[in-house]
Give the backbone structure.
Amino acid sequence: MIPRFSFRHGVHPPDLKALTRSAAIRRLPYPEEVILPLRQHTGKPAKAIVKPGDRVERGDTVAEADGWMSSPVHASAAGRVDAVGLWPHPDGSFAPAVRIAVEPYSPQAPRPRIVPDWKGLTREQLIEAIRKAGVVGLGGAAFPTHVKLSPPKDQAIDVLIINGCECEPYLTTDHRTMVEYPQRVHLGVRIMMQCLGVRRAVIGIERNKPDAIAALRSSLPGDIDVAVQPLTVKYPQGAEKMLIRALVGREVPSGKLPLHVGTVVQNIASVATIAEVFETGLPLIERIVTVTGRGIRRPSNLIVPVGTPLRYLLDACGGMTPDAREVVFGGPMMGVAQANLDVPLLKGTTGVVVLTESDCKAEESYPCIRCGRCLDACPVFLNPQLLGSLALAGRYDEMTANHLADCMLCGCCSYACPSNIPLPQLFQAARVAIRQRQSAA
Amino acid sequence: MEILLSALILAAVGVLFAVLIALVYRRFKVWEDPRVDAVVGLLPGTNCGACGFAGCRDLAEKLVARAAKPASCTVISDDNRADVAAYLGVEEGDVHRRTARLLCAGGSDVAPQLAGYVGLQTCRAAAAVAGGGKACPWGCLGLADCVKACTFDAMYLNEVALPVVIPERCTACGDCVRACPRDLFVILPLDHKLIVQCKSPLAGEAAEALCRVACNACGKCVLDAAPGVIQMVNGLAVVDYNLNELAGPEAMQRCPTGAIAWVENRQFVPSHNAAAEVVLT
């Protein structure tokens, strides 16, 4: 029996969104410094075009896209370029970044439009404007939006799917966006539909956000076919393959993309950003981020410039509690723990979760008891137990044969595991090893 | 009577196949130099690959064919090498002892830890998630993937979580080079003694903030060494081993951090650089 408006397997973690669910989005004063890594998106890193000492205004391009599968980076605050060099990156490495000393007492005044008005633009002009504005997916992976909007000519797309699930616990970025900016979401959907030439769009929202569903439903535009569909609350409902299954009943085959089944999936924050870029005329230089968890004194939903240092953000939210233990970028299921508080926020950072001592799982893991709970949890029907033991034995080729590539590292298997085996980390390490081996061969 | 018949039939079938096998053996026999087996018997049989051939048998074939010298094997004892040379009637060749060297001296005593790492205790897994909490993202993770990969017991983790290679046991097979997710091992001849034990491209205080023994690109070693021996490339002192004969311990005398070292045998023994301690105190 295949459930309607849902998918098979998955897990039910507590949603823990109450901390920030009803906190209105607010703005922070500008930090003293913003750090703009050149690699904030999937694809090739951007190329810096400024040098230390240059003065930049809000929205000025500081790094140009390097090829099609890349995205430019813009100054998120007016100031002077302090340095172009290596700086801690949220992925744990040091990566090239442009550091801007923000002008003190600057009103950060609005400036003339950089992005043209969307009305009257052709499809190509719209996509080009989106590309130049540095818009990428804001749901985490930061896939360049202009690439997503330009599917191959021979691939017919008939439905646009908007992801308003936000199935990760704690995060409320998308939720607040839908509640506070429903008009912006609908404008973004309209622009995307025009770019793709599709007639139908569906917005999928988990049922635990009734106010978001109501807000979007009450502002539905009459002239285009947009539907709002409530979905079962289950993790990972927001994974694109699960979402396509739940909303239009199509299955994306292994190794294929959503466009191969005639769909394009975009996250709600990205859709709102597309509209925002055309409304304000400024490129993607700000994003909404949830700072939450029991380890932060004042959990909030904030609009912050891209490149805000993590330390500044935590201080602005009242600082960490004494029992804070772990700071995670993204949600607790798929997010990346941060070792260095000097890292900046990226375009794709959906939230910052500060976990306390009591939130973190016990550290020891025990041998696998072959209970099979991970098999029942895996939304893509892999055998995590088998993959895990292969990974421990270093038998990477057999892991590839057992469809390791289909794993999206959602973490359902380790969530369900009674032995507390860190399966996704095993898979991730195996993937890195396989990639290294391939590049060596 | 019947039992005899079945025995006879079986015997006949046996003889038939024996003849068949004998005929096939004659017809398809591959002649192999008997010396190959003899040489394989003298080689260590570890199949480590350090000689550059696919295992000991491959090397034995090359030795017999005079395509390699007995000195190619880095694992073999001196006596056995002499035996192989005498048996084949060839020169032993020049023995270039090589060993694995770690390009990081950032033990837990000098390289600060920024965060605690509680995941899987392997370097590869730690490198896949934010690098295991050590401040320096280029440095040794200290979770001993290399020690586990070493098949010759030529490595141990010292008290500050750095792998120490024992040159007498190291065969330069390169297993540790492949095991390290941060590419910190290189195979160097034993007479390359001047080693920059750091890979951080940062310069000045930024480098020293991550590790007390980082190369901070001050350039003193470039001035102190014979001209051309050391160059500053991308915030890191790089030794040009083509000029190895000119290299001497004077290059490390003024190194403020002790990133460059003159290594006689094992690395990190005694801990770090005596010259640097003098400069610091």
User: Anything to note?
Assistant: The first helix of chain A runs from residue 123 to 132.
